[in-house]
Amino acid sequence: MIDTRTATVTTPSDREIVITRTFDAPRAMVFEAWTNPEHVTHWWDPTGHPLSRCEIDLRPNGAFRFVSEKVGGNDHSFAGIYREISAPARLVFATVTGGPVPESVGTLLFTEERGQTTLTITIACASKADRDFLLQLRVDAGTVRTLENLDEYLGKRA
To answer: Phi, psi at residue 101, to the nearest 5°?
Structure first.
């Protein structure tokens, strides 16, 4: 049996961060939970709070925007543009930050074996400095926590 409770984080190149996690759920269910705002709103925020806004236009060149309300009234937004959608196997998007956080391209691969889905997230940055900045912001730890939330959410749907 595959241990579905842990994620691995690697930096295979100067410009990439790769995060892998296996879920005890079929890939169609994992893909749906990742791309449907009715689901995403419940698990996306690493703190475990529901999103205050979740907009998804799931089509090539369609946009997404997730907004988390933080203590003190400050919002945190994660947004991007879908580049490629091949349900339920692959999702590619470019982030749009509008701030000091560098833009990146995320490629998500959903592979299923014996009813379990392995999600491999590759975050590709324009430079080593951009990748290192994302690591300083702890995008790796935040993503791992978000994947833990997704695992808990999928367990409630099973």
So the answer is: -75, 130
The pair of structure tokens assigned to 47 is: 């703190």
Under a CB-based contact definition with an 8 Å cutoff, are residues 135 and 123 in contact?
Answer: no
Over residues 125-148, the pLDDT tens digits come to 999 999 999 999 888 988 999 999
At 22-79, the pLDDT tens digits run: 999 999 999 999 999 999 999 998 877 889 899 999 999 999 999 987 666 667 788 9
As a CATH number, domain 7-157 is 3.30.530.20
What does pTM read for this prediction? Answer: 0.91
In this predicted structure, what is the pLDDT of residue 18?
96
Q: Locate the domains of the chain by residue range.
A: 7-157
- Let me know: does 134 contact 125? Beta carbons within 8 Å: yes
Tell me the C-alpha distance between 111 and 138, whole Å.
26
Instruction: Supply angle C-alpha 137, 154, 63, rounded to 5.
Output: 55
